[in-house]
Write a structure and sequence with these properties.
By secondary structure, the protein is mainly beta. The chain contains one helix and nine strands. An eight-stranded antiparallel β-barrel has the order 1-3-4-5-6-7-8-9.
């Protein structure tokens, strides 16, 4: 009698274990897509330059390869507008805005956690390189502080001296998985580790690095 009970129970246990393992089988994901959004940028100048936030556009191509549960690789090739917008409370009429257009390549570790079957919480972290394609003054009404008329800061008279840019980008967001593809809403912060102007001991600026907040949407078509 005991054997008649144990044998079917053992078969049921083995079948249940196999079913659970089959459900847990991971399949790699390879996805391609597009992204677009806005940049909110300023330049970390030293000596300090009073600035507001400059809002512009960013967009490009994205790819993602998830190699195992919760981890993968995310890369993009973007065109990004950055720059700075000067504002001085002491001189209300002073205005100066310069837009910098970069081609940028972030390559990030992609980490995600499932929030049900159709949502994911995600985090991205990694290096980013960029190259300056062009620069353009959008607004200019420069009024120098007293004592600087004979030696104005170089940002008004000198083109960007270092076109190659690099730094670290970190971000997080939410992914919605639908029958039409994956939609991601994300916020990122880019911390530039290079300078746009020369920073030697005899130079005006000791620091002049890009600092950028990105608010973006990404669409992935999963193959």
């Amino acid at each position: 009698m005991m054997r008649k009970i144990l044998f079917p129970s053992l078969l049921l246990f083995l079948f249940s274990s196999f079913s659970i393992k089959a459900q847990d089988v991971f399949l790699p994901e390879l996805s391609f897509g597009v992204n677009a959004g806005m940049t909110i940028s300023h330049i970390n100048f030293n000596p300090k330059v009073s600035q507001g936030n400059l809002s512009q556009f960013e967009g490009g191509l994205s790819f993602r390869y998830i190699t195992e549960k919760h981890f993968g690789l995310l890369g993009e090739l973007n065109i990004s507008q950055r720059g700075w917008k000067e504002e001085k409370d002491s001189i209300p009429d002073h205005r100066y805005t310069k837009s910098l257009l970069y081609a940028e390549l972030p390559l990030m570790t992609h980490i995600y956690f499932n929030l049900g079957s159709r949502m994911r919480l995600l985090f991205n972290l990694g290096p980013q390189i960029g190259y300056l394609l062009s620069e353009r003054v959008l607004d200019e009404n420069v009024i120098l502080d007293p004592g600087t008329e004979n030696d104005p800061p170089i940002q008004y008279t000198t083109p960007i001296q270092h076109k190659f840019d690099w730094g670290i980008v970190v971000g997080g967001g939410v992914e919605f998985r639908t029958g039409l593809g994956q939609f991601i809403a994300e916020a990122r912060y880019y911390y530039g580790l290079s300078d746009i102007y020369k920073n030697g001991t005899s130079e005006y600026f000791s620091t002049s690095s890009n600092q950028v907040i990105n608010l973006k949407l990404t669409y992935f078509y999963r193959r």
